[in-house]
Amino acid sequence: MTAIVAARYFASSGLFAWISARRVPGIHDRLGPQMRREIRWSLVSAAIFGIPAGVVAWGWQERGWTRIYEDWSAYPLWYAPVSVFLYLFAHDTWFYWTHRWMHRPKVFRAMHAVHHASRPPTAWAAMSFHPYEALTGAVVIPALVFLVPIHVTMLGVVLAVMTVMGVTNHMGWEMFPRRLVHSKLGGWLITASHHQRHHEEYRCNYGLYFRFWDRLCGTDRGLSPNA
Ligand SMILES: [Zn+2]
Ligand SMILES: [Zn+2]
Q: Which residues form a coiled coil (predicted)?
């Protein structure tokens, strides 16, 4: 499972790093040593993410653990998109509060400084976490599959959204159209220009997918002018 996570990382970060270099030539030209560090930390994270994922995948296949289902008729069809939203919202909530906690000075130095050592981050920073931080992230989806029913295809959708947003939020430019980012709906969603601001100013914009918690708690400072 660790190998799969690592392969997914190389495929997604590699793809968006390549697109970044074509879209914005020279964007990260002088960040070679930093990108190598990002890749090294990300591979350590892949090893950590792989362990609970592997246990859950085995338990699901061999032991019938988890609430992952394969028969579309097991739940009403409308539940399929709802389950994706529930997973993303639960993940976002967990991320927001653990992320805010990791910005306390002592915890920051121990767990989160690695992620912020990327200045500015690149597509390779998607999984560039200290092992302690990787642990906090690695348990979320494996815990949710025991609690919230989800069709295996929809779980794939959740993982795809997680992967693509994790990478693109760090690549330093906005891939979504201005019309969406600046729309009413865009005001609730996190894309590159929102997370970029977190990396610029640290004490704001803590969310992962949605701006719900940031807006509710007054930590939303809006979009970065630089992405
Ligand atoms: Zn980040
Ligand atoms: Zn942070």
A: none
